[in-house]
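Database export, one record per block. Field names are fixed; values are copied verbatim from the stored entry.
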Amino acid sequence: MTEATRTPSPEPAEPAAVPPPGTALYRHRLTTRIWHWVNVVTIFIMIGSGLTILNAHPHLYWGDYGANPDHPWFNPPRAPSYLTIPAGYNLALARRWHLTFALVFAFGLLFFMVSSLLNKHFQKDLRIRLKELAPAHLWFDAKEHAALRFHDPKNPNARNIFQKLAYVTAIFVLIPAMIVSGLALSPTMAAAWPWVLDVVGGRASARSVHFLAASGLVIFIIVHVALVILAGAFGEVKAMITGWWTVPADHSAQEHGA
């Protein structure tokens, strides 16, 4: 290659500007905020009514059938009345609450997934790149979490790998598993769509899958709420209401991890 045709080397990119404290950044789209707050009510009612249903037979099995003489793989502790909906034992009412809000839950997920594909929320915010799964990257983010540093100073809106993994697991694994296993538990739905029983391995297995997926979602919620408090509850909740997050006064002006 001659000197005249040689392509000049690109100059190194300048460091990204660090947004100063007080800067308002648009973080959550309207569809995400609507889905979030609808789910706050929906999941609260579904967990409470689900505990009432579980109290009716607090034993879990695998396979097609499960009854008192069978050996369960797990016996969940009985939920106290202050955690159940209704507070007193009423299985029929609990089922009505549970099934009603299951429809809200399922159609809410459909609404969120369609809107997130259209506005590219999944591609922009939740896409997991291979380099983010590298052990060094995972270890770095783990240390940042341990030091209670949850935002990249240069790009506070960016989700770190642990946030992405948690949201992807909840949205694409736990919630769909709850919906499919819930369909299998409905005699009407199982009769109309027999394949749902095959997917989960039988009616008794459907109950176990439903319990495990719900437990995973409860753990996700507990961790989520704890991290929201640690990251600054007022600012995080305000962002989920208005869509805008304000860079706090103590936000680091140094490079991420410095």
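Remark 1: Strands lie at 24-26, 244-246.
Remark 2: The first strand starts at residue 24 and ends at 26.
End of record.
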